[in-house]
Amino acid sequence: MADAVSTPQEIETELRKVLSYLTGNADLIHADANKPFKELGIDSMMAIEIMAALEKELKIQLQERDLAKFTSIKETVETLLTYVR
Amino acid sequence: MQALKLNKHEILKHVPHRPPFLFIDRVVDLRPGKSIQALFYLDPAADYFQGHFPNHHVMPGSLMLEALAQATCVLFDITYPSKRKRRFYAGSVKARFLKVVQPGCELELNSKVISMVSKGGVYDVWASINGMDVLRGEMGCMCVYE
After folding, report:
1. Which of A35, A42, B20, B108 has the fewest CB neighbours in a 10 Å radius?
2. B100-135 as b/e: b if 16+ CB within 10 A
3. What residues in B contact A49, CB-CB < 8 Å?
């Protein structure tokens, strides 16, 4: 589990690890943060899995409305920041 | 909240599956938004045992996963009831099969919410016989509204 993740950089690193693990695509560690998830091969089913993994890794409780904001790495990090600050 | 119990007739209101592809007989403990425990008797006369395998009947692991997905479907449908038509899909499954399961016993099906929203969820799932785990895994399921 991540230790006291709170900065945007730390959150982005954790998010990229989660995305790489769930998709089996190691390239996501270096993917463009602005690229839409759809173009990275991440679909709506994965969004729910990403949500579950992030809740576990970051020890947070996300809301259903947050799913709609999981559109890119950048947007997801911004959403997550509101929970860890 | 008190745990819910469902008989087969009630189960049919919450899953689109029908015999011979229904793998739940009754729900013995359902806590909306949290967990479900269901039971399924492994009838030695079931067709799949005749071919899997002719001289050594074993419950197919893929059908145990299907049974767990159906139990999870009941949990989801009761947690998020909807009058709209929707289809259920398993998106991901990680599982380890721990024991060979033979017919003539009752399979206990368990699913516990890791995270769940109205579009689907991720669940800890496990199957056991007389309290001994025979399968453990994690399952991601979603529903699509028509």
Report:
1. B20
2. ebeeeeebbbbbebbbbbebbbbbebbbbbeeeebb
3. 91-92, 122, 140
